[in-house]
Amino acid sequence: MKEESVDFYLQQGIFGHAETKPDERRMFLGSLRERALLALTKGQVSRNKPYQEVEQILKVNRQATVLLNGELSYASYSQYVKMANAAGCSFKVVNHHEAHSPFGLVIELPNAVNQEHIYIEDELFQKAFAHESVE
């Protein structure tokens, strides 16, 4: 066995498998920007009235998965769990203990779609990103 491959296997054993775009994955709840159809901030997910855009996207994209931020209470995102179930889509509650994403919900597809507009840029979104860029 070559010395490089031994070192490679040792590194994988110590640090785990190499992951592409780890910062992007932390931000988008384990997914990538290129797979996202919609991303809502924690504040947007927590508002009383759910966004109907979520329901519309799920009805058209039954293979989509709804990723929910585990830092939020179940009461905050339960309405989106119901929407996913009603549309026949799966959902996951994501807990990244060392990384804190500004997003509370990401709707992803299994493959890249490179959708240009994935944000609902209302006042709650603007408040969440007042001092930073999301792209």
UniProtKB/TrEMBL annotation:
It comes from the Bacteria. Pfam families: DUF1694. SUPFAM superfamilies: YueI-like (SSF160515). This is DUF1694 domain-containing protein.
